[in-house]
Amino acid sequence: MPFTFHTHSGQFCRHASGDLEGVVRAAISKGMLVLGLSEHMPRQRTQDLYPEESDMTTQDLYTAFSSYVAEARRLQAKYAGQIEILVGAETEYITGDSLLEAKRLRQEHALDYLVGSVHHIDEQPLDFSQDLYDRLAVDHFKGDRAAMFARYFDQQLELLQALQPEVIGHFDLVRIFGATASVGDPLLESEEVRRRASRNIDYAISYGALFEVNSRAWKKGLRDAYPQRDLLAEILRKGGRVTVSDDCHGENDVGMYYGRLRAYLQEMGAHDLWYLRRDEGRVQALVLEGGTEHDFWTAQWLAEEGGGGSARMTTTPPL
């Protein structure tokens, strides 16, 4: 029955494609029994609009978010007999006000869950483009990427403490434009960076968060899914709860690289998968024991080219 709790559509996200219903239909066609919808929360300041949003205002973002929740609830009811849909959102953390606003929006829209993600460091975009990433590293951090990584994990902790999101989005997104397909990012092994990452892992485990193992990293040309294998090994060793995510940006991404994702999890010794589901009237985290051996993974689409790929991964020793 595997699942995804991190999804976007072109209907409500400018750098995605298609509509939200297409994402739902794709998930049903691929045998998922639980689907989390998680469009981005609106950013509050005009200076935080992305280049693709040059014709928009912050009010437009708020209007779009309200429309998203209404559409998601409609789909939740329409497809109730075919798939369980949870309606959530992915966080933004740019200033302290972002965290207050996330709490308000969650309450206002009665959201089922949050994907806790950091997309900015010191108010500068992290993952929108290589150019903006390089400006952040070079102009703001004077080329000191270790300091940039450390700051990322400090801000991530602030978000976790403030919101305690049910799902942690792309735990080590900070490596998005700095690593390659052949090696991991060695900065995650530096003492100061690793100490912060480990601290965040411990905190997230303490309140029961799910760490998504996010396949979108492979679309960015990275060696490992998020989180990188040495961090994933630590999460598993400490008893952290892991789930799977495609971070889809449209219906064509649903289940993206899931065959490869399963191989990655098995290589790392992950057997059980956690997921969110409404149980006894509230959303709870449940475990699918032996989740990486579930019948879902034998589906034909996983073996077909373009269906996420099922080619065996090249084994690379942990950093």
TrEMBL record:
Protein name per the record: Uncharacterized protein
Source species: Coemansia aciculifera
